[in-house]
Every structure is written in C-alpha cells, then in structure tokens.
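As agreed, record passed on underneath.
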Amino acid sequence: MKLYSMVLPYLLLVSFGVELNTFDQAKIELINNSPYQGVAVPLVSHYDTSDPRLLDFTEAVQRIKGSCRKQVWPWVFFNRFIGFKDVGNKYDPGDKEYFRKIKGMDLFNDAGALGDFYQLWRLSLKIAKEFGSPGIFVDPESYNDYSNYCLSYLAGQLGRSPEETENRLKAVGADLMRLALEEYPEAILWFNFTGMATPLSLSKPTGPKELMTTAFIVQGMLEQARKTGGKVKIVSGGGVSLGGCSESLANLKDKIEIRKKQYAPLLAAYPNLALGAPLVIWADSRQKKGWTLGGECGKSHLKDLNDFKPLISHLLGTYDYVWIYAGGDAGYEAYDPKVSAIYNKALGEIPLPKPRSP
C-alpha cells in the first residue's frame, strides 16, 4: 500500500536558495500558495561535507509535516563523492581538502566519500517516507569536475580500465537500488537527468562517443530493480536529452520525438523506468544573465511567461513528471514573495490535462 497520494501529470518546483533546515514557515507558505504539487528541497548543500543525522532535521521535519500542504522531495547530490579539480573550475566547494582526496569519483570508497553519500541517500529516503512524499530528487551533476562524465577520463583518474570502471559504476548503482528498496520500497527516484540515451561526443561531432558515467550508475540501479522485482521507480528527468530550454514550441516537439525513439528500447527493457521533462522559464528575457544567455536558452525566442504557457501545457500533456527549474540567472527567485507571485499567477492560468492515477 502506498504511503502517499499522487495524481499525474505532476508538476515539481526545483530551486536552490533553501535547505531543509532553512525551509521556514514563510517559505512554506510561498510553496503552499503555488500551483506546484511538490518541491525539491536539499537536505544539505551540494558542497556540504558534514555528517548529518536524522536528529539534525527533527524540528524541520515536524514543521513541514505540520504546515506544508505540498509534497516535499528531499534533494540529494552525487557531488558528495566526486573529486574537485582547481584548474578551470569556477566553483568553490568550500571544504576543498575533503574533495581533493577523491580521485575522479570515490567509487571504491577509498576516501570515505562514497560511504558518506550512502548515508545521505538513506537519510533522504527515510525523510521522504516520513513526509509521505512520493520520493526523492536526485541530482547527479558533477559540480566539482565535469570531466567525470567521461568514462575514459574517470578510468584514468582511478587507474582502472574503462571496462572495470563501467562495471564498478553499475555496482554502485546496484547498491543504491538495494538501499532504496530497504528504506522506501515504493519510492520514486526523480533524476534531473540520467544520460542513458545521450552519448557524449569526445572530440568532433563525428568522433567517438560514449555514455555518460551517470548512465552506468542508473543502469546498475535499473538492472538491480528488474532482478529483484522491486517497485522503486526511476524517472529520467530529461535535463540532458531534452535540456531545460527550447527555441520554440516546434523545437520542443521535435526534441520530444527524437527522445521518444531514443528511449523506446530502454523503456521496453526496464519496467522501473519512466520519463520526465524539465523547463527553465523566465518572466522577461531581458533579465536573463549568466548561463541562460548561452546554448539553447540563449537561442530561445520565448520572451515572457505567456510565451511559455503552450510549452508547459504540451509537456504536461506528454509526460507524467514535469519539473520547472527556477534559476536565478533566469530571474526566477522562487523564494522571493514578489517574484514567486508573478510566476504562480502565470502557471495557475495554464489548463491542466485531466488528472489520473499513477
């Protein structure tokens, strides 16, 4: 019997700017008054190296259970077991010594970081279950060193062959699925991306390609679930295969069709896999800055929230799991009352497909 109630399609807010212990009553009310069904909230920062325990969140859990009318998805980061490289990295992870001890990814727990992540993984699932939330939001982004997406690079960091590295990535995935089945047997693990159908180009567009290292971890998870008959579901959120931005509605529809063909064999092979979709939105394209000025976000013809409404409506009619990334560089400060009111009004005006059960 499921511990949560859920209707599809599901709209999830994903936004930095708050952690579980700082998700106070004022922020809870902003979420309560939003059209979202759920919100992803990090337990701790993606650069945190502390050793959090369930007791550390007791007050926050009770506050949220008592006053939040929307579902809170604990947000957990793979970055905890990924090594930091100073060269070319514009981010400051804070505890550099902790991350510098890690070679590539701590796949063999040589630095103790993988074990630390396993504890965070368990903790996030325990808290999700305590909330009665459908599951957790999983962020595999390699904030410390993006080169670790490349299998050959990671293998070199570990001093292992690509084959050994791939097998170990899958073994880590199997461990994560076993832990999920132990802690929350019917959880949904909503990844912002998996990379399972989007090979990396290692040189020129016509050069050799390989799957992202993240994809092998997820593959190990799915194989473990299939082998055991477990009910834990993985949502591949589309952050890589669709991307958060599109030039137009027509462009988005084209990408959806391409993705459908790419994922068809994977969906047939893995009964625990489902697809989701992301969208980065802005109220005024003139306020965009930083990363939203480049790539597909920079090429987008969408000017304001009215322009986004057809895209959001189409995504909700196509996918069961849709997440909006409220990025500061897009001007969407989800925990600013004045800003959130503008976005909430626009999102609330979008007609939703007829709700259905999972």
About this structure: The longest strand covers residues 273-280. The mean pLDDT is 93. The radius of gyration is 20 Å.
